[in-house]
Amino acid sequence: MSWRETLTPVRMERLALVSREEDLPRMLDAIASTGAVELDLGEASSTPGADERRRVADAAVVSGRLRGLVGWAPARDLDRVAAELGAVGASAVPLPRPAGLEPPTLLTGPHPRGAARLLVDTYGTVPYADVDPSRLAALSYVLMFGIMFGDVGHGAILVIAALVLRSGRIRPLASFRRVWPMVLGGGLAAMVAGVLYGEAFGPTGLVPVLWLDPLAAPVPLLLAALVVGAVLTAAAYAVGTINRVREGGWGYALYARTGVAGSLLFLAVPLLAGGILLGSAALDISAGALAFLGIAFVFVGLLVESGGGATGVFQAAIELVDTVIRLGSNLVSFARLAAFGLTHAALTMVTWNATVALWAPDWHAILAILVFVVGNVVTFGLEALVAGIQALRLEYYELFSRIFQTEGRPFRPWNPPAAAEDAAPASSERHGA
User: Nearest CA to 392 among 158, 144, 214?
Assistant: First the structure.
């Protein structure tokens, strides 16, 4: 499987599953044993009873002695499903997908129980037509976390914690084992940022300032945070545009706020900033043209959604203003990367200054060491929690809101416990025959 195939959900096929009345139990055994068929039971699927097989049998379509069910299966498993059903006298027939009916989502990207997948699944299920942003989400999360938690020493502690989680040797932490790659990535990103800031358990001088001291140069750090935010937002718009095309074609994507229209409006912002900074009239004119096109396309899309008419025009105008304001506020939200990076540096500086002030070649040295350790423990715990939450907040509100328009539903193969238990002997009988 190529890496491109892992970026999108597995292609699903709609199936008609048909057997004679007397073969229905064996067909259900075969369906369960494949682990590759989700049954569409309509109303029955949302009201499971004590007897799962009876519920499925009641949902079957009856035609004389024939019984039929409808479901979904990955296209890659069709031959296997057909062979399993054929062995018990049943058939699997591909059906055209009804318009407006979205297949369930089965992803083949990052491990289904991995940390990258957890980031996306906590937000929602990737729609069947969309691109899976798990890798982008993981990368952006650790990057934002590192900027806010920049310290070589604190990052190294996170790396050690990640390795401990991976080992699974501490039983109370076993349930957190799946997140160890994210903890490791956050720790490494924090160490890189710490090298750039010259921070190692604070301004201790253990590492030189490679780029800037956050407290001495807050404005460049703020501008850098906005640039990082702009790049991540641009990536989110790019993925969002691809998703809108896959969901409804270029016509839909052209007028979507998270598609081409929104991308044009967003692109006008850095062009305008560049024009102002460089004094370039060409950039200013380009920014104005893109902003005009973006606003026009967004307005038309909103007008279509509102249904037209005087009320629709008013509603579209209000939502257009809201869209423009949100674009600016969302971009400014990334200033928190610099703000919490400054907070981290300030707390470690206070701890280090107190340690230096108390240090003396007598019993005060013990007090100084105690202050240093306690101060770093408090800073580490507080800032790790804050940076983790703020990075997640930026991920969901500023990035995912542009990538996703709707939510999908996960692929759930039909395999009730009772069917799973009965499938083995049925299968062995077939093979023995």
Answer: 144
> Collapsing DSSP states into helix, strand and coil, what is residue 48?
coil
pLDDT block averages, 10 residues each, the chain of length 433:
77 96 94 94 54 86 94 95 95 91 88 80 94 94 98 98 91 87 97 98 96 96 96 97 95 95 94 90 94 95 90 94 91 96 97 94 89 97 97 96 94 73 39 35
Neighbours of 97 (CB within 10 A): 13
CATH number at residue 48: 3.30.70.240
Q: Which stretches of 276-433 are assigned E, i.e. beta strand? A: none
**What does each C-alpha distance from 38 to 74, 178, 385 come to in angstroms?**
10, 27, 40
Asked if the structure places residue 282 within a domain, the reply is: no
**Would you say 299 and 308 are in contact if contact means Cβ atoms under 8 Å apart?**
no
363: domain range?
A: 115-270+328-403
Question: Are 118 and 199 spatial neighbours (Cβ–Cβ below 8 Å)?
Answer: no
Q: CA torsion angle for 410, 242, 233, 280 (degrees, to 10)?
A: 180
Examine the domain organization and report whether 172 and 94 are in the same domain: no
